[in-house]
Amino acid sequence: MNDPITDLMQATPNWITGILRKRGCLSNGRVISVRKRSWTTITSIVSHLKLDYSAGTSASPPMRLFLKISRPEARLGGGKGEVEFYTKIANAMDDPPSPRCFDAAYSPETGQYHVLLEDVTHTHFRAGPSLLASERLCGPVIDCLGRFHAFWWEHPRLGKDVGEVPTHKSLGDYVSEIERILPGFLGQAGDRLQVDVRTLLRQAFSSLPGLWKRLGEGKGITLTHGDAHLANFLYPHNPRKDSVRMIDWQFCNVGLGANDLAFMIAPHWAPNRRRSLSGRFIRRYHRELVKRGVENYSWDDCWYDYRVSVIDNLYLPVWQWKARMPLDIWWPNLKRVVRAFKDLRCAELLQS
To answer: For 60-97, what is each residue's pLDDT tens digit?
Structure first.
């Protein structure tokens, strides 16, 4: 694997020319200039690249690309997972739910990485809260997740050369890590948290190993996106011609497919909107799985997994606090997940 670039200045015309030739997109001619429009995120530096070519260049090379490189000081990491997705997982699918990748590299020594993708801003727009307004708009996002999960459902490559299959030990270690961090989080939250919520968090996390019994046995598992909030979906301007795409695959791994839905909905949707729409969308997701050939996974199984995943998502604000995200991010997420936990009567699962 090639070394990742670590600075936008390294995205030179010669570098891009070499990549496009390697990918068979540029049989003759070359890139002569690269114009960049860049900004930073919590974990990365991203840039839209507009390319100019020499005279006589072969027909239809990409005119725009999208480059993402890691910020050296970023704390959240995730580059290994994203590069693995584009170099291994997406390549295993005929129609992966992502933009085309031209190049990707990761350094295990430094944790730095880059991905060079097609720029789809002319065909897609970034999803956002407005997509929650109707099933007509948000439904294709649910279908996209269903197609991806169905393809990798109990796939023989899981845990071999794709992802890490959870075990009873790894799940127990995960819960132990939560319980180690939780006292500091509760101390930081202070009197913002009512006594019943503090008790709920302690009970919920200690109950997870039992609720994950099937997951630890490798049943009903699939690849998950791991960060499936709506801003990580690209929605087509023309749904008849193009399909929904997902981006930011840093946390892609093996787990319960319903966890992507719970992550999308419980921490991020306002309670009234969640109550009115989530049931329809979870039903639609289950239908998509069945349509795509998933067997021995009933609606009751799906609903159970969704409720368990809501319990798991109680950890999201704890993780965000640990990652030093500001209060105005993790506090609203905590309130919404706790509200979803209560609305769905998830406490019944803790007692089962």
So the answer is: 899 999 999 988 765 556 688 899 999 999 999 999 99
Phi, psi at 112, each rounded to 5°: -85, 155
Of 118, 149, 179, which marks where a domain is finished?
118
Q: Is the pTM here over 0.85, yes or no?
A: yes
Contact 3, 105 (CB under 8 A): yes
First CA to last CA distance, the chain: 48
- Would you say residue 266 lies in a domain? yes
Q: Domain limits at 113?
A: 8-118
Q: How far apart are CA 10 and CA 63, in angstroms?
A: 18
Cα angle 113, 117, 118 (rounded to 5 degrees) comes to 170
Q: Are residues 186 and 326 in the same domain?
A: yes
Residues 84 and 215 placed together within one structural domain of the fold = no
Tens-place pLDDT, residues 120-149: 999 999 877 666 667 777 899 999 999 999
Dihedral over Cα of 305, 310, 313, 314: its sign: negative
CB count in 10 Å sphere of residue 63: 12
